[in-house]
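Recall that a protein's primary structure is simply its ordered list of amino acids. Everything else, from secondary elements to tertiary packing, is in principle encoded there. The following example makes that idea concrete.
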Amino acid sequence: MLRKLIVIVTVLICVQSMLQLNSVLAFESGTRSSCLVLPDGNGDYPDIQSALTAAEGGDSVLLADGQFSGAGNRDLSYLGKDLYLGSVSGNPQACVIACDGSTGDPHRGVMFDSNEGDGAILEGITIQGGWSETGGAIHCATSSPVIRRCLLRNNDSNKGGALYCTASASPLIVATRMVANNLVIPVSLGGAIYCEYSDVTLENCTISHNGSNMGGCAFVTNSGFTAHACLFTFSYSSAACFWINPVIAVSCCNVFGNAGGDWVDYITGLNGVDGNICLDPLYCDAAAGDYRLVDDSPCLPDNNDCDETIGALGGCGVTAVSPDEGDPGAARLHRNYPNPFNPVTEFEFTLVRDCRVVVSIHDPAGRLVTVLKSDNLPRGRHRVTWNADRCGAGVYLCRLQAGEDEDIRKCILLK
């Protein structure tokens, strides 16, 4: 009996090993669009970089919740490929890359420096504890990645505690928090962001409580700087931003409480224009790292002229994943881009498991306009495009049905 039990256990172990090997081989051969990496190294690959290296353009590398650290889980490179790297849960607080960098042993989270395009996406991850001469959390050169719903905190650098952009970089940063960066570097440029000869775009970001002697939130030189519905608040020891020959487009932003000044220098006169304000955002508990907003915050849609959330998070009663996230373990339909649009826009959605998917467009009354996708799809990131050339201008609703999950997003068609 004991010998039979040993044989059975041995067979089960062999079967499990074969299944894991088949999973890796399928990913490497391009027949699978996603893989899962676990903090303990027992996922499809032993670490994040191994998965990124094996992946092909368009693949997704998904991270389970937990803390990733050590070699292979920091100083990451997409190697010039359009890859999606994101947490399964969508909750950055639950999925952490701990860089453990220092002046004697520098490490950062991610480097985009191989001409990555906007198909290179980083989403739903915290990067913390980075230290590097340029970009404590993320270094971006000659690339245009999308960084979405991330948390960049407690990173340090001489240039850009959270993000460094150079050499015609053009990242899009969406619904991301950059907080408590560059608090230990005595002389630095850009507490959160340093941008030179590049073009950075920020949408619904919260940049707060960062330190720098020049540009607590951002140091921008000879670059484009576009910000919409962002918070630039409470920088230590310097003005919100430091500018040298910038090209600036700022709308629906709140710049407030920065030690060296708020709407000053190149942005003097923009307060009160295009929805820009200078008011206390009324965070729920910034001292505890809670950058959600109390009910009467001027940054909530009902309390500002822009009729939208300013910053990365919604009200105190909303989950601290992001203002437009529901259950972090559910499928998610992301904001379409562009929006407003005419006549073509693209929707991205993330599946946390293999399932039946229907993506459809409806009018405000709920009547079906068209079905964009109806198929069985694997977990990971997917895209669908809507050409609304034959539709009239107005507001439409995109609906994602993924198994038992549902998500709906509003989009605006201009003609």
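Residues 332-413 form a domain with the Immunoglobulin-like fold (CATH 2.60.40.1930). The first helix runs from residue 2 to 29.
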